[in-house]
Design goal:
The structure holds 2 protein chains of 2 kinds. Chain A is an alpha/beta fold. Chain A has helices spanning 44-61, 81-90, 102-109, 126-134; strands at 2-10, 13-22, 25-28, 35-37, 65-69, 96-100. Chain A has a single domain (2-134), classed as 2-Layer Sandwich (Nucleotidyltransferase, domain 5), CATH 3.30.420.10. In chain A, strands 1, 2, 3, 4, 5 and 6 form a 6-stranded mixed sheet that branches. In chain A, strand 2 (13-22) and strand 3 (25-28) form a beta hairpin. Chain A is globular, with a radius of gyration of 14 Å. By secondary structure, chain B is α+β, with helices and mostly antiparallel strands. Chain B has 2 domains: 3-98, Phosphorylase Kinase, domain 1; 105-301, Transferase(Phosphotransferase) domain 1 (Transferase(Phosphotransferase), domain 1, Orthogonal Bundle). Chain B has helices spanning 3-8, 13-21, 67-71, 105-111, 116-134, 197-211, 226-234, 238-254, 270-279, 291-301, and strands at residues 27-33, 39-46, 51-59, 82-87, 92-98, 140-141, 150-152, 158-160, 167-168. Chain B has a 5-stranded antiparallel sheet. Chain B has a two-stranded antiparallel sheet with strand order 6-9. In chain B, strands 7-8 form a two-stranded antiparallel sheet. The chains are: A alpha/beta, B alpha+beta. Chains A and B meet through helix 1 of A and helix 5 and helix 10 of B.
Amino acid sequence: MAKVCGIDISGSEAVIVALEGGPDNFSVIKTDFKKIGINDYKNQADVQSFRDTIIGFFNNMGFDRIGIKERNSTGTRSGGTITFKIEGLIQTSELEVKIVHHATIRSKLRGKNIDLSKFDLNKYQYEAFETAFSIL
Amino acid sequence: MKFMDLKDLGFPNEIINCVEHDLGKDIDFDACSFKGSNGYILFGEHNIQKKRIAIKFYYYGEDYHDEVRLLNQIKSPNLLTIMHARTIENGYAYFITEEVIGGDLDSFLGHNRIGLKSAVSITKGILNGVIELHKDTNRLLHRDLKPANILLDSNQNPLIADFGSLKRIPEDQKYVTGSKHAALYRPPESHLDEYSFCSDVYQIGLVFYQLLGGYLSYNEEDYLTNSQRKEYFKLPGDFEKSKYIDQILKSLSERGKLTQMKSLPYFVNKPIQRIISKATNPDPDRRYSSASEFRLKLHELG
């Protein structure tokens, strides 16, 4: 049974969903850890605090792997500086961290018809959920 | 340090023998401390490594555990590094660490006022160390977190020390027994032998409260009401008095009455008070379920 964490980086925050199980039988892991941001991305102490907090969360939970929804690097819908900083900090984890393309997510969800409203998730967590599901 | 001095200081023969016949060959001891809750600490200079070291001797009795050896493999900037550990005779053991110049948090609190930023920073550091202990691959509970067991280096970086109560929680269990030390810091559930990860969180919550200036007297008689005091002084001996105090502190912790938010300085605002309250909630199900959730809330303070 896999334990995974899906992350959607939006603005200056990483939105998080943790899942346990397999694609046909899974559960959302209840946690207060729903999102985390960097208070001041230019301040070294704030950046270190973000890294320590999120890596500590991964270690506490014992995830098998982490999935981050891929942001475009160019174009009008590309991720900003802070987005890629957050992504880099997460990748310093000792765990396997995958950058998951949206096409991969779509293909994993195809035909599954998952009703997200039945889970105890906020709407802003839906993309993180889909990312987590894609790496189960 | 003459070995006869250790006898005058009340060191057990097992420790004296170890120091005299073994450790004393490589280490020049020159100081000792009794601040550790369940042991004896000697300080000295290692002749070969040419560095100051500290040796903590403790009695594990029949509860032998391999946790200290596991700790040797864990490296964290917030855990005091164990250089060597082993058992000696009759239920005693020791571990060797570097001597930390800054001393412990208890002494620091006694001589300094800590501002909000430092209190949060130090607590974050303690949580970082505990998260490493709790990590899925380690599953170690400290069980004796309190200011006297946390050292500060020259940069005010906290180092968790005193691993004499360390216990591993097996994968198929939710709880282990509570430590019998430091009644003031014992979470309510430990009296039911239901000590778990969030029990360490409770202890860190109390430390955070103290760092912010919250009142938590070390004079156990301060927790007695007038009628309790009358009963207490009628008790025949130290053992009975100690049991009585344990019961009083247990009752106060079960009712969430150990922390007094009104004793906190004005700059400890409601959001911070809520963090303290949640971390020290008598009900483990209403507490932060993990050190990382507590850590997140401190990170969000900025």
